[in-house]
Task: structure prediction
Amino acid sequence: MTRLGLALTGGLSPWDVIECVRLAEDLGYESAWIAEGHGGDQFALLAACALHTRRIRLGTGVSSVFVRSIPTLAMAAATVDHLAQGRFLLGLGSSHRVQVEPEHGLAYSKPVQRVRDSVAIIRALLRDGAVSYQGETVRIAHFDFWFTPYRPQIPIYLAALFPPMLEVCGELAEGVLLTRSTLATARQVAGPLATGARRAGRRPEEIDIASLLPCSVAASRQEALDALRPGVAFYVGFFPRYRRLMAESGFAEAAAAIHAAWQRGDRQAAVRAVPDALIASTGVVGTPAECQERLAAYRHSGIALPIISPFTRVADGKQRALEAIRACAP
Result:
């Protein structure tokens, strides 16, 4: 079976999300992943999708370990897994300081350890129904479930970009969730994943390698590229971690120019500073045929589960998503 996932990141109504996920299921997509950020409550959306689908797996792409308490994350995951009858995947990540502190008013520190502590607590609650935990970043005197989870273990995927978190993925997770990958990314992350896996006595091939990939489908390649340019400008201009990722992916000069324009408040200049090559190298862009070729190239490069992420924070976002889902279907 050709593996393919769908990610939705905001801009759609709950019923639009359900329609997109149902279409993805009908067309043979393996999984659908819902982001949060500013896009609506991901667990509520996934619960609704669970009740309107039967086969497709449903995941958080991703849940921040800072903006919810860890027992709350565990309860939400177990609840959606019940509704989905064992089809749920828990994607966790450390989010970003530039979001957690100014947008949520919460302290952000030791993100790698916070992810470690979070995985330990969630797994204990699912397995045992109760937990007492004294960790470096999270301390819980006692918390217990007043219900029985559908499964004592839910697959956990961890978002990672750089070696420290990649090693944690190899050590603890069923899968890694990359983002904006190039065709070289799978080879580059293999070493840190293997280091973490061996430390835990695991085989590196046990870790599923997935990547969220910005996706734009249009009648012409240039039209598809232009549709993604504003989103790339935002991610590179606003998020230090993504700026570093683009620089290390071979676009250091462009990343610096985008950031400089963003810092001085010139959003249009930031958009203009995004080169076509950066967009094309880190996503699935073009005509339907070109997008299918690109997905095949990602699979060949070692991305076992490519996850297309159409840009939907625009007036015609739903239409863009439906067109991408149809064009990229396995």
The mean pLDDT is 97. The longest strand covers residues 208-217. The radius of gyration is 19 Å.
